[in-house]
Amino acid sequence: MQYLALLISGERERTPDEGAAEMAAYQAFHAKAASAIRGGDALLPAATAVRITGGPDAPTITDGPFAEGAEVAGGYYLFEAENLDEAIALARDIPAAKHGAVEVWPVFHSFEPSRRLTGNDWLALLLEPPASAHTPGSPEWEAMAARHGEFQAAAGDHVIAGAALHDRSTATTVRVRGGEVNVTDGPYVEGAEVASGFYLVGAEDRDGAVKIASLIPASAVELRQLAGVSSL
Prior knowledge:
This protein is an alpha+beta fold. The protein has a single domain (2-225), classed as Dimeric alpha+beta barrel (Alpha-Beta Plaits). It contains four helices and twelve strands. It has helices spanning 16-33, 84-91, 139-155, 206-213, and strands at 2-9, 37-42, 50-53, 60-63, 72-80, 101-111, 121-128, 159-165, 172-177, 180-185, 194-202, 220-225. Strands 1, 2, 3, 4, 5, 6, 7, 8, 9, 10, 11 and 12 form a twelve-stranded antiparallel sheet that branches. The longest helix has 18 residues, at 16-33. The protein is globular, with a radius of gyration of 17 Å. The chain starts with a strand and ends in a 7-residue tail after the last strand. The model has no long low-confidence stretch (mean pLDDT 90).
């Protein structure tokens, strides 16, 4: 089974030594977890993000950042794991778990990337109010899935990969403090919206990525450019 791991932390300036130490920590994690990692990358700062609301019929574009000083997603991984316990064991070794948190979401359905990802690609995180975040497999979810099929057909090769997530009741947050692992049910941030899925999209520039993401049938889309540092 696949699991999405969202890396949540505060954004801050790092000295060259701090940056090198963090990179070394992630390289060590990649070496340890390589057999389970199916994808992932760091995300560019939230100041470069775009939030799209209103759906395809009346999209409203807002530039980031959206919550000054708040902890935000700084990267993601897609894991292959036998069960949640195995996914949590992977998440606790991610360096972000030691100073922030890692949200672990079981994936309901995904499709493999059509090509290797680069820094010209974007993560589009789909967000829904809890009332409209339908349970995968339900009639309401199937109706929305049909709309996503239409989006994928319209976007064509711009859609590189994507996944639908199970509902928020299945999410788990992992933190590590002082060597102790703390696991709690639910997403890290109890907000007005919850993640329901994601797409990886390719575009020549930011405007092109926004145009594609504006077609996604979701209450809100947070569009974040990949850093292109993954070797996966």
